[in-house]
């Protein structure tokens, strides 16, 4: 497979050509039980070699982007670090800078929080990554949904939901203003200090909200793609509107066809209401792919994946979040615990965002389900956690993706691999050629930058300069 370089075509013309294409990104979330870490082929959670192999496979398959999640505090379960999660959350900016050196075209997406990071630090870190990677950086904007994470910071628990998005908007606007400190024709990459400091070259950014103030000029010049691409992950109505006003790509959880169709209609409506063309905000749901030559083999593989993901220990820990107490005395292969929960709300594994349901109601519905289907604790957890994902033959899944491409309800998927670092091999070797045959997957990297490859228009703040 050749990875072509090309000249810089007009980005608006490219935007039209991307319709009906499915891009792929890879999301390394960091904390989850969807990655199987104890299989023979599993790699390390922190060693560079794991990430190098994963990202180079993705680039061989012309993936658009490599995403890293962010966790600003390790999760805890029943008072201890959650042993089932990945322990080790390398800094995304540093990790992606290292990966920039071993890749050429793939986008590098750092999830970074607006509630706790300062705008000048964000502008500098992401702007630096964009320069080092020659226009391949992106920022996945998140706000983080729990005060518990905030205890790791001087500000403590900090902001409620509404304030988080108001502050996020301030942070994003400030970061963009910093990136735009230098006019489009400024000799920002000139080694000549006089050119940099000439009067009128750089505009000082002076902003403040209730929590932060800034008086600064960007410490790095604009990159080959003007500034990093903006992704956003947050699903509330406020989060969706925030994305419609600010982001280039929304990272969603709505991957099933019906849900993706409804989500696309909702996002297009919000994007237009924000004064942008409806297709201006690209949609990338997260998705798992379990593939084989035949449907039957894929189903067998899926069984292995589910049983490896949901170990007996994982199954108990999953239920403990709802029961609010240790369930160590119960057999994971036996029936649901016959005791009530001690928690009113389901939130025992701190930092998961898995909360907000009333525990008693949750338990009652699980009991009914497990009785109806005759499920053990572990079988119930497998049932509850295995709804998502494409499971099938290469050609069958390619046909399914064709349906999405024809309906135009997604622009891509963020693959969450169940194995690291080998989890993309099947996709790259078996699925992508099928997608290319159907004309719905790129056959080369387009342009030099992530913005060009995704067919995005100019950054919102700079369009009037076109
Ligand atoms: C697909 C997806 C991925 C996310 N990844 C992260 C992450 O890596 N780190 C993080 O702190 N929050 C992450 N979040 C959570 C967001 O920070 C946000 O706090 C949460 O979704 C609540 O916002 P909302 O009420 O608008 O949905 C993610 C959310 C979504 C939907």
From TrEMBL:
Domain of life: Bacteria
UniProt domain Luciferase-like: residue ranges: 38-409
Keyword Oxidoreductase appears in the UniProt entry: yes
InterPro entries: Diverse_substr_monoxygenases, Luciferase-like_dom, Luciferase-like_sf, NTA_MOA
Entries under Gene3D superfamilies matching the protein: Luciferase-like domain
Family: Belongs to the NtaA/SnaA/DszA monooxygenase family.
Sites where the protein binds FMN: 111, 161, 165, 236
UniProt protein name: FMN-dependent oxidoreductase (Nitrilotriacetate monooxygenase family)
Transmembrane segments: none
Lineage of producing organism: Bacteria, Bacillati, Actinomycetota, Actinomycetes, Micrococcales
Pfam family, one: Bac_luciferase
């Amino acid at each position: 497979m050749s990875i072509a370089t090309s000249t810089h075509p007009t980005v608006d013309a490219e935007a039209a050509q991307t319709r009906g294409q499915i891009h792929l990104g890879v999301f390394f979330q960091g904390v989850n039980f969807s990655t199987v870490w104890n299989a023979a082929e599993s790699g390390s959670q922190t060693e560079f070699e794991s990430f190098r192999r994963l990202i180079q496979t993705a680039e061989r398959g012309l993936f658009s982007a490599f995403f890293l999640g962010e966790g600003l505090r390790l999760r805890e379960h029943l008072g201890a670090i959650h042993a089932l999660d990945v322990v080790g959350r390398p800094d995304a900016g540093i990790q992606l800078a290292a990966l920039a050196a071993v890749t050429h075209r793939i986008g590098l997406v750092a999830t970074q929080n607006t509630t706790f990071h300062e705008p000048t630090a964000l502008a500098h870190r992401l702007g630096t990554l964009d320069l080092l990677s020659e226009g391949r950086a992106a920022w996945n904007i998140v706000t983080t949904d729990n005060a518990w994470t905030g205890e790791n910071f001087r500000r403590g628990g900090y902001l409620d939901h509404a304030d988080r998005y108001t502050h996020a908007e301030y942070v994003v606007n400030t970061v963009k203003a910093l990136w735009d400190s230098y006019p489009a024709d400024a000799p920002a990459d000139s080694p000549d200090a006089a050119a940099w400091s000439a009067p009128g070259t750089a505009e000082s950014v002076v902003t403040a909200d209730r929590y932060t103030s800034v008086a600064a000029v960007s410490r790095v010049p604009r990159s080959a793609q003007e500034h990093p691409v903006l992704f956003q992950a947050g699903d509330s109505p406020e989060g969706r509107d925030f994305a419609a006003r600010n982001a280039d790509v929304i990272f969603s959880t709505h991957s099933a066809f019906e849900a993706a169709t409804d989500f696309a209609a909702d996002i297009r409506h919000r994007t237009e209401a924000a004064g942008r063309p409806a297709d201006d905000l690209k949609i990338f749901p997260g998705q798992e792919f379990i593939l084989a030559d035949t449907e039957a083999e894929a189903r067998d593989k899926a069984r292995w994946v589910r049983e490896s993901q949901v170990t007996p220990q994982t199954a108990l820990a999953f239920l403990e979040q709802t029961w609010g107490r240790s369930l160590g005395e119960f057999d994971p292969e036996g029936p649901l615990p016959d005791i009530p929960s001690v928690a009113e709300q389901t939130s025992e594994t701190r930092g998961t965002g898995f909360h907000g349901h009333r525990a008693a109601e949750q338990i009652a519905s699980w009991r009914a389900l497990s009785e109806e289907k005759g499920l053990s604790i572990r079988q119930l957890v497998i049932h509850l956690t295995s709804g998502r994902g494409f499971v099938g033959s290469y050609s069958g899944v390619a046909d399914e993706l064709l349906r999405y491409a024809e309906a135009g309800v997604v622009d891509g998927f963020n693959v969450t691999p169940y194995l690291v670092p080998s989890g993309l091999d099947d996709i790259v070797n078996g699925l992508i050629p099928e997608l290319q045959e159907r004309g719905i997957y790129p056959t080369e990297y387009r342009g030099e930058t992530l913005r060009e490859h995704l067919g995005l228009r100019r950054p919102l703040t700079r369009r009037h300069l076109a």
